[in-house]
Design a protein that fits this description.
The complex is a heterodimer of chains A (about 190) and B (about 575). Chain A is α+β, with helices and mostly antiparallel strands. Chain A has seven helices and seven strands. The interface between A and B is large, with 41 and 61 residues. Chain B: Keywords: Auxin signaling pathway, Developmental protein, Nucleus, Ubl conjugation pathway.
């Protein structure tokens, strides 16, 4: 084994494994993460290696990282949205939504349930993405910033964060997007 | 064949009720086709884009009950974009304009707008039954229209729909004159309901047999409802949270004991597990128990409840029951035919509480088991082989290992042999879902042995095109094939394009098929719609035939390309 390590055979070994199962995630990507529908750009060169990848069953595959593969495990969205997993009696699970920011290389996820209201949410977003949202007013939206927090609601429409009561927002928000610059014009930005 | 007058043949055909049989009857000769089509009352359309409403109406003027399915199955798992299609409005519109006296509409995975529900409610005087499963696009306003306008409504059954709840008064819209309800299921609604209206509705519905409440119905209302409807056969409890020393709880105990007909129990959407003893009196009669939305019920309380359910035939449960709990099921539920174990925490792959051990126990204790959906942490070949031996009667076998390419943890081998044993032993297997580490070998077995297989779901499996070819060549009765993240390419796709005309549909996503391959299928088979779903709009800019297609959905159709596809769906 030591001999193999010196030759760095591990680094060039082609195998089918999910990310997290070894350090060389680039070589070991399965079609799953290559085709994932998120906005990340994935290395193209690994695609060809998968058709001929040999299986190395001796190496233990690590369990999938949380929520990495779209549509797996195959559970109906309704069930996912409505099941509150038991943590302890009385505790309710979080509402995790994706947060994207225009220009950022990858998305984040936040739990809406940990915030009591809009001020806390905005503060957390500002810290996460290093921007300032400006002052919210019902009439003019977010003043004083080129970044505007928006969200996609259940109907698929993009809405300004802050217009509806907090609980209604957490129930209908599917994902967040921090819009920037010219796209945000018309949403109450300077 | 003209020995009997038409009326006699029609009378004989009345006894033939299954869709498959009636379809066969219609193919015998022209005269049988004619008699059959005039007498047909129930039609099932598995893919709403395979035929048009106009042709349906033309062929079956006596239509009373229509079942329609819209989006492909993988839409359940967010693999199909939101507005892909499956709109019911054109169907209701066409039926409304015709003379069809529609009485029943059953929809699955379709987009249902409030406008459609309103049109439906106003267009068919004798409309009796609406069943919506996994649908979306409507609000409680649409339900209000149904309640208000369908004077003879017997059934309103909403299963796992995404409904925009306007917290309105839809329940109050049932007029005082409405006394015909047999089945009311609104468990999937999230909002408040008018409890007084609900109590009055139940009071004036002497035929009510099935009642499934939502989370907003509290325990003391439940108790009142049960007092008014002791004839219930199917009960879905909304909220089951209360103080065990309260008056309401005592009244509930009395009310439940009067309900001697309850055979099916579900819900417990909010549950205080220390109060389950009130339920025990009805457990002995239950044939269906669905606790899959009740994560608060686990451990000893859950096991004690199950121990009372000796006649159970179908059990839907969460994996927090654990292998030990499944052992209790195995000892108690000797009549069990269907078991579904759902994950209580889907993304924490390391915490799933059931393994191959629980499944083996159930297979040993419940020889009548014929339908399985099992989400688990791991599976071994040895376990599957044992299960196959214990239960040769499987019709549906769906296994989901939370880590989709996990090998047998004991031997580190793929699970080919285990699934092979299942298909070899279960000669009546109609539906199979695979997971775990799998090579081409498992597909060789499936092609060889799964002669009755109608639906197959594959994910993250196989080594080469051979896998798909074994299945396409071997499974003569295959109707639906759905594949994701497998190395199947054009060679497999194009080997026998005629086969797809014998199937309802084929889904392939994140595989190796190219645009050129899909075009070739479309060109050779004009009776198929070949859809490319591409949200990233890559297809627009790069029309290279060698480009891999992210999502392809093809299905046979008699009516050509659909006109309602969104921009990102390209029909070749």
């Amino acid at each position: 084994m030591a001999f193999e390590k010196d030759l760095n055979l591990d680094a060039t070994e082609l195998r089918l494994g999910l990310p997290g199962s070894s350090d060389e995630s680039a070589k070991n990507q399965t079609p799953a993460t290559l085709r994932s529908n998120n906005k990340r750009a994935l290395p193209e060169e690994s695609m060809s290696s998968n058709a001929t990848a040999s299986k190395n069953c001796d190496q233990e595959t690590a369990p999938l990282p949380k929520a990495q593969v779209v549509g797996w495990p195959p559970i109906r969205s309704y069930r996912k949205n409505n099941l509150q997993p038991k943590k302890s009696e009385g505790e309710i699970s979080g509402i995790y939504v994706k947060v994207s920011m225009d220009g950022a290389p990858y998305l984040r996820k936040i739990d809406l349930k940990v915030f009591k209201g809009y001020p806390e949410l905005l503060k957390a977003l500002e810290e996460m993405f290093k921007f300032k949202a400006g002052e919210y007013s019902e009439r003019e939206g977010y003043n004083g910033s080129e970044f505007v927090p928006t969200y996609e609601d259940k109907d698929g429409d993009w809405m300004l964060v802050g217009d509806v009561p907090w609980e209604m927002f957490t129930n209908s928000c599917k994902k967040l997007r921090i819009m920037k610059g010219s796209e945000a014009r018309g949403l109450g930005c300077v | 064949m003209n020995y009997f007058p038409d009326e006699v043949l029609e009378h004989v055909f009345d006894f033939i009720t299954s869709h498959k049989d009636r379809n066969s009857v219609s193919l015998v000769c022209k005269s049988w086709y004619k008699i059959e089509r005039y007498s047909r009352q129930r039609v099932f359309i598995g893919n709403c884009y395979s035929i048009s409403p106009e042709r349906l109406i033309a062929r079956f003027p006596g239509l009373k009950s229509l079942t329609l399915k819209g989006k492909p199955h993988f839409a359940d798992f967010n693999l199909v974009p939101h507005d892909w299609g499956g709109f019911v409005y054109p169907w209701i519109e066409a039926l409304a304009k015709s003379r069809i006296g529609l009485e029943e509409l059953r929809l699955k995975r379709m987009v249902v707008s409030d406008e459609s529900l309103e049109l439906l409610s106003k267009s068919f005087v004798n409309f009796k039954s609406l069943v919506l499963v996994s649908c979306e696009g409507f609000t409680t306003d649409g339900l209000a229209a149904i309640a208000a306008n369908c004077r003879f409504l017997r059934e309103l059954d909403l299963q796992e729909n995404e409904v925009d709840d306007h917290r309105g008064h839809w329940l109050s819209c049932f007029p005082e004159s409405c006394t015909s309800l047999i089945s009311l299921n609104f468990a999937c609604l999230r909002g408040e309901v008018n409890l007084g209206a609900l109590e009055r509705l139940v009071s004036r519905s002497p035929n009510l047999k099935s009642l499934r409440l939502n989370r907003a119905v509290p325990l003391d209302t439940l108790q009142k409802l049960l007092m008014r409807a002791p004839q219930l056969v199917d009960l879905g409890i909304g909220s089951y949270v209360h103080d065990p020393f309260s008056e309401a709880y005592n009244k509930l105990k009395i009310a439940i004991q009067r309900c001697k007909s309850i055979r099916s129990l579900s819900g417990f959407l909010e549950v205080a597990p220390h109060c389950m003893s009130a339920i025990y009196p009805i457990c002995g009669n239950l044939t269906f128990l669905n606790l899959s939305y009740a994560p608060g019920l686990h451990g000893n309380k859950l096991m004690k409840l199950i121990q009372h359910c000796r006649k159970l035939q179908r059990l839907w449960i969460l994996d927090c029951i654990g292998d030990k709990g499944l052992g209790v099921v195995a000892l108690t539920c000797k009549e069990l035919q269907e078991l579904r174990v759902f994950p209580s925490d889907p993304f924490e792959a390391g915490n799933a509480a059931v393994t191959e051990e629980g499944l083996v126990l159930v297979s040993a204790g419940c020889p009548k088991l014929n339908s399985l959906l099992y989400f688990c942490q791991q599976m071994t070949n040895a376990a599957l082989i044992t299960v196959a031996k214990n239960c040769p009667n499987f019709i549906r076998f769906r296994l989901c290992i939370l880590d989709p390419i996990k090998p047998d943890p004991v031997t580190n081998q793929p699970l080919d042999e285990g699934f092979g044993a299942i298909v070899q032993s279960c000669k009546g297997l109609k539906r199979l879902s695979l997971s775990g580490l799998l090579t081409d070998q498992v597909f060789l077995y499936i092609g060889m042995y799964a002669e009755q297989l109608e639906m197959l779901s594959i994910a993250f499996a196989a080594d080469s095109d051979k896998g798909m070819l074994y299945v396409l060549n071997g499974c003569k009765k295959l109707r639906k094939l759905e594949i994701r993240d497998c190395p199947f390419g054009d060679a497999a796709l194009l080997e026998d394009v005629g086969k797809y005309e014998t199937m309802r549909s084929l889904w392939m996503s994140s595989c190796e098929v190219t645009l050129g391959g899909c075009k070739a299928v479309a060109e050779k088979m004009p009776s198929l719609n070949v859809e490319i779903i591409d949200e990233s709009e890559q297809m627009e800019f790069n029309l290279d035939d060698k480009q891999k297609v992210d999502k392809m959905y093809l299905y046979r159709t008699l009516v050509g390309h659909r006109k309602d596809a969104p921009e990102y769906v390209w029909i070749l």
